[in-house]
Amino acid sequence: MMKCIIVDDETAARAIISHLCSQVDTLEVVGEFPNAMQAIKYLNKNEVDLIFLDIHMPDFTGFDFIDSLKNPPNIILTTSDKNFAIEAFEYDCIVDYLVKPVLLPRFLKAIQKAENFVSTTGDTPAVAPVSKQPESTSTKELYVNIDRRLVKIDFDSIFLVEAKGDYILIKTEGKNYTVHSTLKKIEDKLSGSSFLKIHRSYIINIKKIIDIEDNSVLIAKDVIPISRSNRPELMKRLNLL
Amino acid sequence: MEKPNMSYIDTLSGSDKAFKLKLISIVKEELPQEITIYEENIKSKNFKEAAENVHKLKHKISILGLETSYQIAIDYEENLKIASTQLRVEFEAILKEMTRFITTL
């Protein structure tokens, strides 16, 4: 049995998901919440296996909600907006993405996916993250969502990535891209390549360094600070004479 | 003009009449509230908030089986995000039709 909660500020949406859940023997709805804060309070004291989560909620979006959870269970997003699909799959915990209005056949497909994620040994939440990204060490590019277009950026063209609040600025040889994402997410995507986080707000492409002076590096026309804690790793990665 | 219908609610409810009545009751209560909030935001020229309201109303539009109107709502939501009220007349005509329809339920 999978314990689930429903988080949606719309009463009709909660009623529909709850009704659909009632038609699946393996699902038990243990809570319904009209906002993220109430759901977080519940999750601080209770474990669940699955969350049906609306993305569009006032004040605190579904993605804010996920970011606030230390160990998120499996999540099925429910939304009237198809535009978040790309962002959704940045999260390993997101099992599926249901576009409202939801009907039973599509709902069952999502539940099947969720069940495949849950441990078969019991009713414990699936804690092991399952990556939807193909295991590949040869990835040389990434796609970013810019104005509803997926724009390809070659790793080799990237000078640096800078954190800008809820956004990141990707500076490349061709142009700069502002993307709604976090430095942590792009760091994960760039791992294993020539990129290194040298400051809490900067990831640089080591291949693009022009020179290093004290606690800063020059990349293209930008002088980037190196934090004390990241400096040893940077020095280790350089081919020093 | 496209007419609201019970297609989605009937399909979703199947033979569960209690759920069907419950959902209709929720829509009858929630839709006017959402429309009021939208109208207040439009009146105050709070276009960003109005776009959020339209987003929320899209679900009600789809629940009432309005496929063409749903697309108008999508476009109108995008317009409001850039402070344009283009398609306002069309969208508000949809709201009026939905309001009329739910009073018959």
CATH topology of the largest domain in chain A: Rossmann fold
Shape summary of chain B: elongated
Residue runs with pLDDT of under 50 for 5 or more positions of chain A: 119-138
Rg over C-alpha atoms of chain A, rounded to the nearest angstrom: 21 Å
The end-to-end distance of chain A, rounded to whole angstroms, is: 61 Å
Quote the average pLDDT of chain B: 95
- Low-confidence runs of chain B (pLDDT<50, min 5 residues)? none
Assembly type of the chains comes to heterodimer
The largest sheet of chain A, given as strand count, sense and whether it forms a barrel, is:
5 strands, parallel
Terminal CA distance of chain B: 19 Å
Structural overview:
The complex is a heterodimer of chains A (241) and B (105). Chain A is of the alpha/beta class. Chain A has two domains: 2-117, 3-Layer(aba) Sandwich (Rossmann fold); 141-237, Beta Barrel (OB fold (Dihydrolipoamide Acetyltransferase, E2P)). Helices cover 26% and strands 34% of the residues of chain A. Chain A contains seven helices and 15 strands. Chain A has helices at residues 11-22, 36-45, 62-68, 85-88, 104-117, 183-190, 231-237; strands at residues 2-7, 27-33, 50-54, 74-79, 94-99, 141-146, 149-154, 158-164, 167-172, 176-179, 195-199, 202-205, 209-213, 216-219, 222-225. In chain A, strand 14 and strand 15 (222-225) form a beta hairpin. Chain A starts with a strand and ends with a helix. The model of chain A is unreliable at 119-138 (pLDDT under 50). Chain B has helices at residues 7-13, 17-43, 47-63, 67-81, 88-103. The longest helix of chain B has 27 residues, at 17-43. Chain B has one domain (7-103). The two termini of chain B are 19 Å apart. Chain B is built from five helices and no strands. The model of chain B has no long low-confidence stretch (mean pLDDT 95). In chain B, helix 2 (17-43) packs antiparallel against helix 3 (47-63), helix 2 packs antiparallel against helix 5 and helix 4 (67-81) packs across helix 5 (88-103). Chain B is mainly alpha-helical. Chain B is elongated, with a radius of gyration of 14 Å. Chain B is 78% helix and 0% strand. The A-B interface holds A 9-13, 15-16, 19-20, 56, 58, 80-81, 100-101, 103-104 and B 8, 11-13, 16, 19, 22-23, 26-27, 29-30, 52, 55-56, 58-60, 62-63.
